[in-house]
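Protocol step 4 of 5: obtain the predicted structure for the target chain.
Materials: sequence only (see below). No template structures provided, no constraints applied. The aim of this step is simply to have a reference model before the mutagenesis design in step 5. Sequence pasted as it appears in the construct record:
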Amino acid sequence: MWGGRAGSLLRGWGRQLTGAPGRRLLNCRAASQAGNSAPRCWKCGGPRGPAQGDGFFCPQCRALQPPDATRDYFSLMDCNRSFRIDTTKLQHRYQQLQRLVHPDLFSQRSQTEKDLSEKHSTVVNDAYRTLLAPLSRGLYLLKLHGIEISEGTDYEMDSQFLMEIMEINEKLAEAQNEAVIKEIESIVRGKQKEFTENVSRAFEQDDFEKAKEILTKMRYFSNVEEKIKLKKTPL
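Step 4 output (structure tokens):
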């Protein structure tokens, strides 16, 4: 009787003893797999994070690493993901990043790092230009929310607005002196300022459909601005 109970207890203890190491082994294997999937330095093979210099450099060998394709422009430029941003802070961040990754700083490095610095510099320039201008910033913010405005614009504009654009374009085409061009330019700037304030409120209210409508109008006036520049450029 005692032998049977003792055997039963021993078998139970055996299951507990063999089960615990099994779980530890599984956890170690999972941790190892997770470690293998983590980004590693292309040069020394060491783990890339947490790295110095905003994650651009390997913390072990200090080699420049490839750009992080998962990082959006707002995160890269250290800005809140919103339409209202501090453009002075944006400019300072741009200058800071260029001091880290500008190709001139890598002229004596390996070809790999030279190529990577070109890629980083391009991304930083694109991020800065995109977030600096209200129109491109708004379009990018919409894109992050899964909304894009096609180049030909699929948004149905009201006839009154289209008539206004047509009249401005006609007046600009017929302008023969600088005073008329400046008058049109002043009108367009006023419109763009009004649109910028309205689209900012739309984003604050998460009204993305309204933001899309306003940004489409801003794009029309942006095209007029380009025509004004061409008109003012001497042949």
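Step 4 remarks: Residues 5-35 have pLDDT under 50 and may be disordered. Residues 159-232 form a domain with the Monooxygenase fold (CATH 1.20.1280.20).
Proceed to step 5.
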